[in-house]
Design brief:
With 560 residues, the protein is α/β, with parallel strands linked by helices. The chain contains 19 helices and 23 strands.
């Protein structure tokens, strides 16, 4: 059996100019990065934005999933397979996905290009440096940090209190040793000593700003609105006061433009932006989604992790700040994952266990209910594994029917678009028969504390929320400064609907702890950190980096 990377390397891709021509984008509207990937030009981006603004757009299918388990769910694989399946049944389809982060590639999860015969390519390049977007974001983020420290070193005309600086440095790797550091040690010329912190680049506010900005003008405005700390007399300081907004934006002028690639079956895919859904808002860029909507009749996009994380943030943050609206949701589930949620150990997942499956179904049921709270029609895509028995498949389809949702078996991993044709037909049928009545979970006017409580109780099924006193104080200060109408982005574990990764299945009635909150005034939301979640991940005992290698011809192996 070929590995994912071997399948991708054996594929014969079309020139990116040919892929672009399928969706009406000319060669002159591309900036090519070799023969198989490109960015669209700013002029083309503006044209696509105008098309969508005038109402000429495709239908948007949001793919989400059940809560992740070590058994695997395959959300990206199903998203790509669905896109190929729609193309295979004659629908003009475009996919919009996030860029992979280097952290997971060398850590636990691996890449983010799908798997088997449902992949986007060139897989190795997308998973590693791609077109340099995340590197540019890291550089821009760290330029802000350097400018802040330099301002303090060179006389501190604004009177910034170093103890109040909230801006973090970043790197796109899992490096727990950088979570909490001291900078400025050495002589007087080496800076002012202070506590500092790192987050992973994809969870930085700059990544969020790139994903939510439609133009360079908006990009500069959001960068200027970043809150970096306070003065000694407790006045809030925005980055615009350092008068370097243009320099930071100059590093990002290309990163704001979407990247165009293709699937193994030559379906066009915009891959752009890469925030994690457990510690950030977890969606590809607004510009990528708009570009896809303008160039396809059907658009398949995904939000990170499960419906309690990426899909909620897609609806409450991305849609709220962009005007984008999904037409339906597809929830990816596997029988293996549901059996784990039902208490079955990973080593026993290959054996039939209807009892564990029925118990674990409660996790899927919660996510179906979550998507319906946003007024979206829902179907379930059952990502088929060879170990699934007929009795298990029949039971899962029956349980879905009992809650009024269609479930379709899909085999994109093994068969590509042909394995997702039935899913594609069900998606088209659902879009024709059911109209979305999209709505946000909470109104802008609701106080920040109540917004957090609503997400925790309505989406996570907590009994109530316990706020650390310092977090409540910050929320009051945010509202006093005029940020009370912002949406909230809750950072929590992806391994449970709750804050506790050990609580599998469908926990409810627990206390949801919020230990801290952070203001992302440039991006336009407030982050609430729950439980033990960190914005800088660490590497596992056996990182994926152990399996990755490259030969003398530059051919990479071990990446998945």
């Amino acid at each position: 059996m070929l590995s994912d990377i071997q399948i991708a390397q054996a594929n014969k891709s079309q020139k990116i100019t040919e892929i672009a021509s399928k969706i009406g984008i000319s060669e002159d509207s591309l900036e090519q990065f070799g023969p198989y990937k490109a960015k669209i030009t700013m002029n083309e981006l503006r044209a696509l934005q105008s098309k969508v603004a005038s109402g000429k757009k495709g239908r948007l299918i949001l793919v989400t999933a059940v809560t992740p388990t070590p058994a695997g769910e395959g959300k990206s694989t199903v998203s790509i397979g669905l896109g190929d399946g729609l193309s295979k049944i004659g629908k003009k389809t475009v996919i919009a996905l996030r860029e992979p982060s280097l952290g997971p590639c060398f850590g636990v999860k691996g890449g983010a290009c799908g798997g088997g015969y449902a992949q986007i390519v060139p897989m190795e390049e997308i998973n590693l440096h791609f077109t340099g977007d995340i590197h540019a974001i890291s550089a821009a983020n760290n330029l802000i940090a350097a400018l802040i420290d330099n301002h303090i070193q060179q006389g501190n005309a604004l009177g910034i209190d170093p103890r109040t600086i909230t801006w973090k440095r970043c790197v796109d790797l899992n490096d727990r040793a950088l979570r909490n550091i001291i900078v400025g040690l050495g002589s007087r010329t080496d800076g002012v000593p202070r506590e500092d912190h790192f987050c992973i680049s994809v969870a930085s506010e700059i990544m969020a700003i790139i994903c939510l900005s439609k133009s360079i003008s908006e990009l500069k405005e959001r960068i200027g609105n970043i809150t970096i700390g306070r003065t000694f007399d407790k006045k809030w300081v925005k980055f615009s006061e350092l008068k370097c907004t243009g320099a930071v934006a100059a590093l990002l002028k290309d990163a704001v433009r979407p990247n165009l690639v293709q699937t193994l079956e030559k379906t066009p895919a915009f891959v752009h932006g890469g925030p994690f859904a457990n510690i950030a808002h977890g969606c590809n860029s607004v510009n990528a989604t708009i570009s896809a909507l303008a160039s396809g009749d059907y658009v398949v996009t995904e939000a990170g992790f499960a419906a309690d994380l990426g899909a909620e943030k897609f609806c409450d943050i991305k849609c709220r700040l962009s005007g984008i609206r999904p037409d339906m949701a597809v929830i990816v589930a596997t029988i293996r994952a549901l059996k784990m949620h039902g208490g079955l150990p990973k080593a026993e997942l290959g054996t039939e266990n209807l009892s564990a499956l029925e118990k674990g179904f409660e996790n899927l049921k919660v996510h179906v209910e979550n998507m319906r709270k946003f007024g979206l029609p829902v179907i379930v895509a059952v990502n088929h594994f060879v170990s699934d028995t007929q009795a298990e498949s029949d039971l899962l389809i029956k349980k879905c029917s009992e809650i009024g949702v269609d479930a379709v078996l899909t085999e994109g991993w093994g068969k590509g678009g042909a394995g997702a044709e039935n899913l594609a037909r069900k998606v088209v049928e659902t879009l024709e028969d059911k109209k979305a009545d999209f709505k946000f979970l909470y109104p802008d006017e609701l106080p920040l504390k109540n917004k957090i409580e609503m997400v925790a109780t309505e989406i996570y099924r907590a009994a109530n929320v316990e706020f650390a006193p310092a977090a409540l104080k910050k929320l009051r200060e945010f509202e006093e400064q005029g940020y009370g109408k912002l949406p909230v982005c809750i950072a929590k574990t992806q391994n449970s609907i709750s804050h506790d990764p050990k609580l599998l299945g469908a926990p409810q009635g627990y206390i949801f702890p919020v230990r801290d909150v952070q203001l992302y005034s440039g991006a336009g939301f407030v982050v609430a950190l729950a439980g033990d979640i960190m914005t800088m991940p660490g590497l596992p005992k056996l990182p994926a980096a152990l399996n990755i290698d490259v030969d003398d011809d530059g051919n990479i192996s071990g990446l998945f």
